[in-house]
């Protein structure tokens, strides 16, 4: 591998490490939002994360197309990439678990609300109690 090829390969590796560092920042931000319960900022964050994940895929593909790492070059940088990749994978898995917990919690809360709505006492125009009929009333999500 020529010295210019080595420089190109190392530059590609550096760019990939930089993008992975940015990705970890987004994952950490996502985890903070999930832990705090702030869900609205998760939508634009997910879009950023998706774009950066695609960039990482492209950078990894490009670096792999350049061939094997130069012998004796960048082993520390490759170890850095591997360490950061493992950390990002762990953080992403944890975030997925937090999302699943929040989803289950929201589903349970919705089920409780739906059960309460089904048991709600309704009154007719004469003030007498009416037995609720399935599908009567306003759906919970309507505005």
Task: Describe the protein's architecture and organization.
This protein has 143 residues and is mainly alpha-helical. It has a domain of 96 residues. The protein contains three helices and two strands. It has a two-stranded antiparallel ribbon. Strand 1 and strand 2 form a beta hairpin. This is Flagella synthesis protein FlgN. One of its GO terms (biological process) is bacterial-type flagellum assembly.
Task: Please specify the SSE layout and strand pairing.
Elements lengths: L2 H34 L5 H24 L9 H45 L2 E2 L5 E2 L13
Antiparallel strand pairs: 1-2
Helix pairs in contact: 1-2, 1-3
Short description:
The protein is an all-alpha fold.
Write the H/E string, N to C: HHHEE
- Distance between the first and last residues' Cα: 66 Å
Profile the largest sheet. 2 strands, antiparallel
Shape: rod-shaped
Q: What's the oligomerization state?
A: single chain
Spatial strand order of the main sheet: 1-2
Return Rg in Å.
26 Å
Tell me the number of helical segments per DSSP (H or I, 4 or more residues long): 3
- Report the count of strand segments: 2
Uncertain runs: none
Q: Would you tell me the structural class of the helices and strands?
A: mainly alpha
**Share of helical residues:** over 70%
* Residue-averaged pLDDT: 87
Strand content: under 5%
């Amino acid at each position: 591998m020529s010295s210019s090829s080595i420089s190109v390969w190392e530059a590609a590796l550096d760019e990939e490490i930089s993008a992975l560092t940015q990705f970890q920042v987004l994952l950490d931000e996502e985890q903070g939002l999930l832990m705090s319960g702030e869900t609205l900022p998760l939508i634009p964050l997910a879009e950023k994360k998706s774009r950066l994940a695609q960039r990482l895929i492209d950078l990894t593909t490009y670096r792999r197309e350049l061939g094997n790492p130069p012998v004796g070059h960048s082993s520390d940088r490759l170890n850095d990439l591997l360490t950061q990749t493992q950390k990002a994978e762990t953080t992403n898995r944890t975030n997925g678990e937090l999302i699943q917990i929040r989803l289950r919690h929201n589903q349970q809360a919705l089920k409780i609300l739906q059960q309460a709505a089904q048991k709600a006492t309704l009154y007719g125009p004469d003030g007498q109690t009416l037995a609720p009929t399935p599908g009567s009333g306003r759906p919970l999500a309507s505005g």
